[in-house]
Design a protein that fits this description.
GO terms for molecular function: DNA binding; DNA-binding transcription factor activity. This is Helix-turn-helix protein. The protein has 107 residues and is mainly alpha-helical. The protein is 72% helix and 0% strand. The protein contains seven helices and no strands. Helix 2 crosses helix 3. The longest helix has 18 residues. The protein is elongated, with a radius of gyration of 17 Å.
Length: 107
């Protein structure tokens, strides 16, 4: 299992909340060294620690696991749909044009 992607997601959501590592550790009731090791992918969280971190970050578990679960692509698709909903029709069409071009180059 890819440990680093879970840690990268923890770090990403921590930064989105402008939390220092120490802040997240305190909020979750975990040690700074442990949370740091999780973010670096050196350790794998227990279920209990994972729940404490998800609650401290105020995110769902599927967001933290989106890169390691095969169903995580559904989560990413819904996040993309939410971002697209916030765009005007011309902006959305620009995104679709770029996406079409990208898909053509990788096929």
């Amino acid at each position: 299992m890819e440990l680093t992607s879970i840690g990268k997601n923890i770090r990403k959501f921590r930064h989105a909340l402008s939390l220092r590592l120490e802040d997240l550790a305190e909020k979750a009731g975990l040690s700074v060294n442990y949370v740091g090791a999780l973010e670096r992918g050196e350790k794998f969280p227990s279920l209990g620690s994972f729940i404490l971190i998800a609650n401290a970050l105020e995110v769902s578990a599927d967001l933290l696991l989106a890169d390691v679960l095969t169903a995580g692509y559904t989560v990413k698709e819904s996040l993309l749909a939410e971002k697209l909903d916030g765009l005007s029709v011309p902006q959305r069409n620009q995104v679709y044009t770029v996406l079409d071009a990208l898909l053509q180059t990788i096929q």
